[in-house]
Amino acid sequence: MKKIVLALTFVLVGSFMLAGCSKDEILNHYNNIVQSAGSIELTGKSSLQGEKEKGIDDYTGTYTADYANFSGTEYLFGGTSIKREAGKELSIDCTLEIMEGTAKVFWISGSDEAVTLIETTGTYSDTITLPDGGNYIGIIVPCNSV
């Protein structure tokens, strides 16, 4: 019951704070809230197996990792922007070198099934158009990999 009361309080306080704002300003505020919530899905910097350098936003950057003695999934880039400042086009360049075991770099959008971008030693390069909603790039390293 307290959750509902707090949520309603947040909505009421938010509507008072946005009084007098233009439609675009309200949409920008809403987009910022949605994007902040979407950042929670990303694997935290202290939990990452490698080194990540953030780009202009959570959708871009570089990531390098050595997955020895690791199994799991890392969500590296992405978010839930309604209107991404840099646009809906995202260029992906990935090099995967598998010495032993398996790994899979994927893109997941909304409630759709994950799309495998690369899962063998090699390179992947493409430009994708991000649909509205959550979009994440990640890597899965199964427990049989070392």
What are its keywords?
146 residues, alpha+beta, 4-stranded antiparallel beta sheet, two-stranded antiparallel sheet, 2 helices, 8 strands, 34% strand, signal, Lipoprotein
Unreliably modeled segments: 1-18
Tally of domains: 1
The fraction of residues in strands falls at 25-35%
* Strand line-up across the major sheet: 3-8-5-6
Q: Quick one: how many beta strands?
A: 8
Question: How far do the termini sit from each other?
Answer: 47 Å
Overall 3D geometry?
A: globular
Structural class: alpha+beta
Whole-number mean pLDDT: 77
Order of helices and strands: HHEEEEEEEE
The helix count comes to: 2
The radius of gyration computed from the alpha-carbon positions, rounded to a whole number of angstroms, is: 18 Å
Oligomer state of the chains in this structure: single chain
Share in helix: 10-25%
How is the biggest beta sheet arranged?
4 strands, antiparallel
Overall description:
With 146 residues, this protein is of the alpha+beta class. Helix content is 23%, strand content 34%. The strands form 3 sheets. Strands 3-8-5-6 form a 4-stranded antiparallel β-sheet. The chain has a two-stranded antiparallel ribbon with strand order 1-2. It has a two-stranded antiparallel ribbon with strand order 4-7. The radius of gyration is 18 Å and the shape is globular. Mean pLDDT is 77; it is low at 1-18.
